[in-house]
Structures are given as C-alpha cells and as structure tokens.
Amino acid sequence: MKNVECYSVLRDVFGFESFRPGQERVVERILDGESALAVFPTGAGKSLCYQLPALMLEGMTVVVSPLIALMKDQIDFLVSKGVKAARMDSSLTAEESRAVWDGLWKGELKMLYVAPERFASERFLQRMRRTRISLMVIDEAHCISEWGHNFRPDYMKLARLAKELEVERVLALTATATPSVAEDICDSFSVGPEGMVNTGFHRPNLHMSAKAVSRAERDAELVRCLKDDPQDSFRGATIVYVTLQKTAVEVAEFLEGKGIPAEAYHAGLDSEVRHEVQDRFMNGSDRVVVATIAFGMGIDKADIRKVIHYNPPKSLENYMQETGRAGRDGAPSVCELLLCPDDVAVLENFSYGDTPTAESVRGVVEELCALPDDFDISVYTLAATYDIRQLVMQTLLTYLELEGVIKSLGPMYNEYKFQPHRSSAEMLADFDQERAAFLRRLFGQAKKGRTWFTVDLNAASAALSEDRERLVAAFNYLEEKGELTLKVSGLRHRYRFVNRPDDVAGLAKRLHDRFQHSEERDLERIRQVMDLATTPECTVRKVLSYFGEDLGKDCGHCDRCAGEEIPEWPPETKKDLRPEEQNVIRVLKSEEHDALATPRQLTRYLCGLASPAASRARLTRDPRFGRLAHHRFATVLEACS
Predict the structure, then answer these.
(1) How far apart are CA 172 and CA 187, in angstroms?
(2) Confidence check: pLDDT of 294 > 90
(3) What is the pLDDT of residues 456-497, one digit of tens each?
(4) Strands (DSSP E) along 76-227, which ranges?
(5) Which pLDDT belongs to residue 377?
(6) Strand-pair partners of 412
(7) How many CB atoms neighbour CB 217 within 10 A?
(8) What single DSSP character describes residue 395?
C-alpha cells in the first residue's frame, strides 16, 4: 500500500491521524486490487474503508446502499472536501438528476451512491457499461444471502452485475453477518478467506439487559429504565424501539404523561415532521424518541446513551444493529430489552404474511412455463394477478433463477416520454446526415400529447428494424446533452429459460417449500430473541456466539454477570376471539370482497398485512384493516376458514 500517500489522505481529507481497528487492512486490500468483506460493528467506521481508497483509485466508485439518509450525509461531507460525489435516487429534482447524468457523461464523478433498485433501470445500466468502475461497494451486504435475516432479491443480482460491468474490485460491508451469511457473501463476490476482515462484535461499553415482562408491567418497567439510572453518565439521548406505528404514538404520549419529554417517529408521519424530530434528536443531548425501525438507519450520533426495546426486534441481527447505535463515543451506555410474550404474535404475523399460498405459486409457475424461451413480464401485474406482494414475487423469480430454470436478461422500460427543449429541426441540425435521418425516423414514431411525446419502444424497434439498445442510447444521449426531458414507464423484466421443467407441479411445490422454510427460519429467529429473557448464561456471550464470536469468558458487565434476578416467563394474555371480533369476520365474509376471497387473504387483512388485491380495492383504508393484529395468525386463520 502507498503508505505515505494513504496517511496523507487520511489526515488531510478525513482529519484522522490513525486508522481504527480493521480499517487499514481493508484499505490496503482494496488498493492492492483485491475484493474484501468487512464485518464491522455499527458505527465502527465502515465508510472510511471505501471513501479513502475511492479518492486514490482511477475510475469511479459506485456505492450501493438502501439508506438514502446515509447517502445524503456522506455526500455533503465529501463535497465539502472537494470530492466530486453524487447520489442518484427518486428524491432528486429533474435539474439535480440531469446534473448527475451530466457528471457521469463527462466522467467527472469520483463517487456515485445508488440504491440497489437503481440497477433495474436499463438507462442506468447502459451508462454504467461505458464507465470504468474501479470499486463497487455493497453496503448492508448481508441482504445478498438467502439465509440471512433480511434477504433482498435485488441484492442477489449484484454479484452477476459486478461481473457484467467488469468491476475491478468489490468491497462488501455488513455489521450483522453470521458465519454462514459471511460465507455466502464471500462466495458471491469471490472473496478469499484472507479477504474477510472481522473486527468482532463485542462492545465492552454497552450494558446489555434482557428482561421478561407482562403487558401490565411493561410501561412501569420502561419508566424505570428511563428514570432510575444507576449512574449519571447513563443519562442522555435515548431511542425506544417499538414494532407498530400506533405503538410509537401511544408510548410517546404515555411518557409525556409521566413527565418524560418524548416524540414519536415512524414512516407514516409526513417527511417534514420526521426531519424535525430527527433534527431535534441529533442536536440534543437528552432527547427521547419512540420509534419504529424506520428511525436510526444512517443516523451517526455518537452520544446515544440508551437503546430500549419496548417491543422485541425480529432477530438477533436486528438487535445487534439497533443496539449498535448506542455509545459510539465509547462511553458507558445501556441497552434494555423488554420481552413480553404478547409481542410474539405481531412479529410472527409479519412472517406468515410473506408466505404465498401453494395455489398462487403454482399459478405463477404455470403462467411462466407457458411463455416462449425469451420473455418479458411485469412484476407489478404478476403480483397483482396472484395477490402476492411485489417483493415476495421478486423473491419467487429469484428462486426460479437459483433453481436453474430461468436467467435474468435485465430490465427494460417499454414507454419513453419526452419533452423537447427546442424544435426537432434545430436539434437535427447538430448531427451528421446519417444520424439526423435516424433521429428523424425515431421522432416519427412518437405520439404527441398535450405536453409530452410518447414512444412505444418495442413497437418503434420493430418498425424501424433497429435494436432497442440503439433507441435507448439515442434518448439517453439527447437527455444528457440537455436536448429534452425524459421520463420512462412500463417497467418489465426480461428472462430466458435455461432449463424448462418437466414437472411443473413438482417445481411449484419445491418453491413453496422454500418459502415455508424461510418462514420457519424467521420464526426461529424470533424465538432466539425471546429466549434471552430466561437464559442463565451471560447475555453478551450468548448473543455473540450467534455471530460466531467466542469471548472465552463472561463479559462481566451484562445483567446476568451483575447477578440480576431472572424473572419468570409471564403467561401470554389469553387471546380467544371476542364475540365482536368474530362478528367482524362474519360481516367481511358476507360482503364477498374478491380481494378477501380465501381464508388466508382474509386473515392477512385482519392481521394488518397489506396485499396487492386489498390495496387495489382500497380496503386497507377501512378501519377493519389490522383489527385483529394482536391475535396469532393461526387463531385468526382458523376463524376465517
């Protein structure tokens, strides 16, 4: 590694005299032209591992991250240091978007931040194919693994795309990789054993506590956690995590009534309100925010003194990620986990809601197998037809790829709309005769509306006997040159059959079994969290062992090591359906909604799990949506059958 230059950049750009643990090993590997996996705790400095080498490498660094807030903060910092960095996401204005495209076209950008879904744009992919990508960074890389806690189909395609785009090296980042997930990531990106840098998960400054509480006891226990601090150093900014949006509001109001200033934060609030709550939290030293997991992603606040789980996280991975937001400054901080048996139903219902019926899976497979060898589909339409959420439908298509049945050929948009900024005659005057003739023929395929021209790209390609790639390139070029404003719609995904199944029914069953196994893994993860309440072992040691880390001794500073009493596991509140709840089911059945025709559809609806059919029928606006969310899925399903 170019040590002198590297330390110069570290000091002059980032203001640090030395690296934090693990950072130098990762940076050295990247600068040596090798791929790497960095498994660092939340807040341990993962961003420096790619920002620093990105400034020293030729070509562009592409950072793939689902966290728009993280993108904005990092870009603001980099731009303030004179680095040409930008993001490309849906929050940009048309003018901002054109500026990013212009920077790409001219080859001026050193760093580009994008969400994984951006690779579903053929326009973006076409631009990336003409760009030298010296480094691709995969943030939240655990999402690539089917066996992880947060599998996302878009992530699984990133490894293939990295090869297709001839990316020179890849850096995968995660704070929550179990050994099997880390192996998956390394296999996907061809990272050898020496390329994995794991600094460990243990945070000695965090005091972890897991306590079983009944629903009746929980509010009082929360107040105790917030008020009865064993040390003054434990006072300070606090996040109280809850599962549901309405719980965030209810708990914040309860704390206010107890004289504890608190604010609710969840995805259902207006963006302006969310930003105000977040800003007050970031700028204050003694703020309490009651939030769903929508809060905390990309937040870099070093002095959070407490993270309290009023409702449990859905996995130990989530627990580690959320508690990792406490005490990043190294000072003592408290992580309290309140475990109530009544919460299990809500967490389990989310898992049940993602499992499609065997009939739906079979219907999708039969429809696809009736298509030609090369085909394109609308995931939106397919999801609506079989009442499967789009993310679940994308997972089903990914499973078909993993089975070796189909291969993705990438996305395409069928409809291009454009607004010219000057007359076609003025535009064409800037091109040679052959290109002007081509563009004139292309413009001839457009239908004029009130303010936009529309081109059906497939029809135009056939009519002009031109590859659609040339048509896409032409529109991209004209937009990048500022000749027109472009909008695309009608997203479709192209596939090719690799191995048509002889036994369609057998394939459908294997795919449905895969979903059921995923459901079982999710339920097991919930049980692992709840088990922390009754284990006599060192809490920290037990959590770390899940991630493959052995302390070799007890931590000495958690609730168990402190000798705190282990409460008995309280009984779950009896939750038989009340007569008025049974009547809700009877009335909904009698209304004969097509979107609620099957017992599982009706159960999902009553448990507060939206589906394409229910959303399209606007039934999710009905006050009965989620009416039985506090009941177990199996109990509601039995009553709906």
Answers:
(1) 12
(2) no
(3) 998 999 999 998 889 988 998 888 788 888 888 888 888 999
(4) 85-88, 111-114, 133-138, 170-174, 196-198, 206-212
(5) 94
(6) 492
(7) 16
(8) H
Rounded to an integer, what distance in angstroms lies between the CA atom of residue 575 and that of residue 555? 39
Answer for the pair 335, 208: CB distance below 8 angstroms, yes or no.
yes
β-strand partners of 265? 291
H/E run at residue 418: strand 406-420
User: For the segment 74-108, what is each residue's pLDDT rounded down to a tens digit?
Assistant: 888 888 888 888 888 777 777 787 788 888 877 88
- What tokens does 566 get? 């282990």
User: Any residues with CB less than 8 A from the CB of 575 and at least 6 apart, and which?
Assistant: 342, 345, 630, 631, 632, 635
Contacts from 246-249 at CB under 8 Å and sequence distance 24+?
247/310, 247/311, 248/290, 248/291, 248/292
Residue 288 has phi, psi (to 5 degrees) of: -115, 125
| Beta strands 453-456 and 374-377, pairing class | unpaired
Q: H helices within 481-538, ranges in order?
A: 504-530
Helix axes 390-402, 504-530, angle to 10 degrees: 120
Tell me the C-alpha distance between 248 and 310, whole Å. 10
pTM (two decimals): 0.83
Cα–Cα distance between 198 and 12 in angstroms, integer? 27
Q: Is the pLDDT of residue 551 over 50?
A: yes
Q: Which amino acid is at 196?
A: M
The amino acid sitting at 298 is G
Q: Chain centroid to CA 48: how far?
A: 21
Please list, residue by residue across 29-55, b when 16 or more beta carbons sit within 10 angstroms of its beta carbon and e when fewer do.
bbbeebbbbbbbbbbbbbbbbbbbbbb
pLDDT in tens, 353-411: 788 989 999 999 999 999 999 999 999 999 999 999 988 999 999 999 888 999 888 88
Long-range contacts of residues 246-255, Cβ cutoff 8 Å, at least 24 apart:
247/310, 247/311, 248/290, 248/291, 248/292, 251/222, 251/290, 251/310, 252/290, 254/219, 255/222, 255/223, 255/226, 255/288, 255/290
Sheet of 447-448, strand order: 374-377, 484-497, 406-420, 453-456, 447-448
Please tell me the predicted confidence (pLDDT) of residue 234: 43
% of the chain exceeding 70 in pLDDT: 97
Give Rg (Cα) of the chain. 27
Contacts of 5 (CB under 8 A, 6+ apart): 56
- As a whole number, mean pLDDT of residues 437-464 equals 92
- Judged by phi (left if over 0) then psi (alpha if -120 to 50, else beta), residue 177 lies in beta
- Are the C-beta atoms of 340 and 321 separated by less than 8 Å? no
327 contacts 305 by C-beta, under 8 angstroms: yes
* Structure-block tokens of residue 591: 């209304």
Q: What is the pLDDT of residue 233?
A: 40
For residue 4, the number of C-alpha atoms closer than 13 Å in the C-beta half-sphere is 0
> What is the 3 state secondary structure string of 338-388?
EECHHHHHHHHHHHHHCCCCHHHHHHHHHHHHCCCCEEEECHHHHHHHHCC
